Amino acid sequence: LYVWLPDAMAGPTPVSALIHAATMVTAGVYMVARLSFLFDLAPITLTIISLVGGLTALFAATIALAQNDIKKVLAYSTVSQLGYMFLACGVGAYASGIFHLSTHAYFKALLFLAAGSVIHSMSGEQNIQKMGGLRKKIPITYGTFLIATLAITGIPPFAGFFSKDEIIWQAWNQDRFVWALAVASALLTSFYMFRLLFLTFHGESRASEEVKNHIHESPVSLTGPLVLLVPALLLLNAGR
Does residue 216 carry a pLDDT above 70? Predict the structure, then answer.
């Protein structure tokens, strides 16, 4: 049932940042955690949730590996991270699942908004195969995108590390197969996110000459929210 989400990426990036990172798509995770007292009475159901969550996290990550649309990479990444949250709930780590829901809301919102800044600077181009070399031309967008990438891949001291680490630890204690799915998904997340980062910002520019002449850093109305979201990726763990 996830296939509608990548197609919904045609909307503006602020909408994606709100709805597809923090609110609508995570409602199911909140429901399972909120009704944990009922799910604890049905261990078979929890096992199914953990397996479906783990397989979703892995399957969506493999799809993200082959995407060239910058927003679709993030869309399938969202599907994968939602699988991670359900995996956490399935092994009984409800607090860890909600913690990852919170950290994901911030770093995925930052990634979507930064992607919007990239698209703006590239005159509407969304194909990462036609980007490259943007690191020096849009440094604020690059810096914030890099930090969000480090957070989603689980690099300390960003909050994404602590939420993923807790989920993997809880999975190890409950089900080694689910743990293997969580670890494999985490590794694939690192691969497709750094692929996205390098193809977009590093190397030689692959854009047309017309687009190259118009590449510029986004105005403060776009870069301001990016900068404001960065501290949250460090403070979320302290707040927890």
Answer: yes
